[in-house]
């Protein structure tokens, strides 16, 4: 099992057919997730392209996750977390925290993506809108969004199966100014493991 340290990012390579189990170790941690095609990282998992293909805003077990070239890159194969994830909200970045009133640098998922890929010698072509695992952004009144703690429980997990050789990146979201990582607003580590 590999740790995604609290407030940090981590990236791995997956071969087609391999799976990664993303574990919400302490139950309340959002994990921003990206996938890039190994052959050309300008092709990456795209929430915009996925939503129209699956016909909903939260993928379910069995749903393919499409790239910006509309090819399946991952499949959501297992989910014990309660099925609440987010595909609507951009990764947090320094500007998000500045808008929330943070003075000075704040850890953020955008920089964590870059740091995770840098460990593999890669530079993200942009910060794609992530699959925000365990993030609870309900659509209310048909046209508003909420910001709520996760419904996931300690040890619950999501399994993603690679449909092509790819690089998958995770960020244990460092958001501690709104309760997206639980009412305690204390980001924690999460873990993952890869299996064939
Ligand atoms: Zn974040």
Question: How would you summarize this macromolecular structure in one to three sentences?
Answer:
By secondary structure, the chain is an alpha+beta fold. The chain is built from three helices and twelve strands, in the order E-E-E-E-H-E-E-H-H-E-E-E-E-E-E.
Measured between the Cα atoms of the first and last residue, the distance is 14 Å
Task: Give the strand content.
Answer: 25-35%
What is the average of the pLDDT values?
97
| CA radius of gyration | 15 Å
Number of strands: 12
Give the overall form: globular
Helix content: 10-25%
Describe the oligomeric state of these chains in a short phrase. Answer: single chain
**Spatial ordering of strands, largest sheet:** 1-12-3-10-6-5
Structural class: alpha+beta
Q: Which residues form runs of ≥5 with pLDDT under 50?
A: none
In DSSP terms, counting alpha (H) and pi (I) runs of 4 or more, how many helices? 3
How does the major sheet shape up? 6 strands, antiparallel
The distinct bound ligands, ions and cofactors come out as: zinc ion
The H/E string reads: EEEEHEEHHEEEEEE
């Amino acid at each position: 099992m590999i740790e995604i340290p609290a407030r940090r990012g981590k990236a791995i390579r997956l071969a087609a057919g391999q799976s990664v189990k993303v574990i919400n170790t302490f139950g309340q941690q959002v994990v921003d997730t990206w996938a890039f095609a190994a052959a050309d990282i300008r092709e990456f998992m795209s929430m915009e392209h996925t939503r129209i293909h699956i016909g909903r805003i939260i993928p379910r077990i069995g749903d393919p996750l499409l790239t910006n070239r509309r090819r399946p890159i991952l499949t959501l194969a297992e989910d014990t977390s309660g099925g609440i994830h987010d595909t609507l909200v951009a990764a947090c970045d320094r500007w998000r925290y500045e808008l929330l009133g943070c003075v000075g640098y704040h850890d953020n998922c955008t920089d964590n993506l870059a740091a995770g890929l840098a460990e593999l010698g890669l530079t993200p072509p942009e910060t794609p809108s992530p699959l925000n695992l365990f993030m609870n952004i309900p659509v209310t009144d048909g046209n508003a969004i909420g910001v709520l703690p996760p419904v996931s429980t300690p040890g619950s997990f999501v399994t993603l199966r690679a449909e092509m050789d790819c690089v998958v990146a995770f960020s244990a979201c460092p958001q501690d100014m709104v309760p997206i990582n639980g009412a305690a607003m204390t980001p924690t580590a999460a873990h993952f493991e890869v299996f064939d």
